[in-house]
């Protein structure tokens, strides 16, 4: 029995790309921009590649959540506020994908990621300006702003910040269910401005919400359009992404806040460049 070396090379390419994608997803959240192009290059139709990628990266996303379980326990009530919004958005986004081509977002995604990257860079300065401007007027609001998350470190200084975070989580859930590229960068950018969470805490919540969106989108695809799923490809993606997620998660937890921010910015800029010149 002869070995089909071309097939073996394709499998190796998928495993390698998805290992890298799984690590990047856990660290910042732009791994789709590594795995998706490889699948298309190997001849998969864009819709099939998007669905296989979404389903396959679920185990990797879950492994990233496991690595950050300590941070998540600390902010469990905050998660309960943001997670439902992301989940509902994920259902809407996955449903839209089955009715409209993923190429609809092609011209918009680089702009969104670019804006998100700028916000990640400018986040600390923006938060300082907002805090300085509203310090006197909000003194009486902070103590009662978030009754829904009382009893744990309060990440949102005002109800406006809380509402903006929940609304943003919903729309990013729609975006993630439709085309998940760099959803994590955008969520880190949003919460980095609206909350007082540290970079590691932001990454923990990002990993959980993105994983939830991936699980929900994958469930929609499996139930609604199983004929579009390439299960052997999903299996390869799952193995690579899971291993990459475990390695990437352990690496991410060792990053200082400043270096973490730099890493997010580098990935964001690279993503914009890749998507603009493709």
- Return the average pLDDT rounded to an integer: 78
List the secondary-structure elements in sequence, H or E.
HHHHHHHHHHHH
Mass-distribution shape: globular
Gyration radius from CA atoms, angstroms:
19 Å
Description:
This protein is mainly α and 278 residues long. It is 75% helix and 0% strand. The protein has helices at residues 5-27, 32-41, 46-56, 58-67, 69-74, 76-97, 109-134, 159-178, 183-194, 199-224, 231-252, 257-277. Helix 2 (32-41) packs across helix 3 (46-56) and helix 8 (159-178) packs antiparallel against helix 9 (183-194). The longest helix has 26 residues, at 109-134.
List keywords for this structure.
single chain, 278 residues, 12 helices, 0% strand
Which helices and strands appear, and what pairs or packs with what?
Blueprint: H1 5-27, H2 32-41, H3 46-56, H4 58-67, H5 69-74, H6 76-97, H7 109-134, H8 159-178, H9 183-194, H10 199-224, H11 231-252, H12 257-277
Summarize the structure.
The chain has helices at 5-27, 32-41, 46-56, 58-67, 69-74, 76-97, 109-134, 159-178, 183-194, 199-224, 231-252, 257-277.
């Amino acid at each position: 029995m002869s070995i089909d070396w071309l097939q073996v090379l394709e499998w190796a390419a998928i495993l390698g790309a998805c290992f890298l994608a799984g690590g990047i997803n856990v660290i910042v959240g732009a791994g789709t921009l590594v795995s998706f192009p490889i699948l298309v290059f190997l001849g998969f139709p864009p819709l099939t590649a998007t669905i296989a990628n979404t389903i396959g990266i679920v185990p990797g996303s879950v492994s990233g959540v496991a690595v950050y379980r300590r941070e998540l326990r600390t902010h469990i009530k905050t998660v309960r506020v943001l997670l439902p919004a992301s989940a509902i958005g994920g259902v809407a986004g996955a449903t839209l994908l089955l009715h409209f081509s993923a190429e609809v977002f092609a011209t918009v995604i680089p702009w969104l990621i670019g804006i998100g990257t700028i916000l990640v860079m400018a986040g600390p300065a923006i938060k300082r300006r907002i805090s300085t401007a509203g310090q006197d007027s909000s003194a009486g609001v902070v103590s009662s702003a978030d009754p829904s998350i009382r009893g744990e470190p309060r990440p949102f200084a005002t109800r406006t910040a809380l509402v903006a975070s929940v609304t943003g989580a919903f729309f990013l859930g729609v975006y993630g269910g439709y085309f998940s590229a760099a959803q994590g960068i955008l969520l880190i950018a949003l919460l980095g401005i609206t909350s007082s969470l540290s970079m590691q805490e932001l990454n923990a919540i990002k990993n959980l919400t993105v994983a939830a969106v991936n699980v929900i989108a994958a469930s929609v695809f499996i139930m609604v359009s199983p004929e579009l799923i390439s299960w052997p490809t999903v299996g390869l993606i799952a193995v690579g992404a899971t291993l990459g997620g475990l390695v990437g998660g352990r690496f991410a937890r060792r990053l200082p806040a400043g270096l973490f921010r730099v890493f997010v910015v580098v990935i964001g800029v690279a993503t914009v460049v890749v998507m603009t010149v493709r």
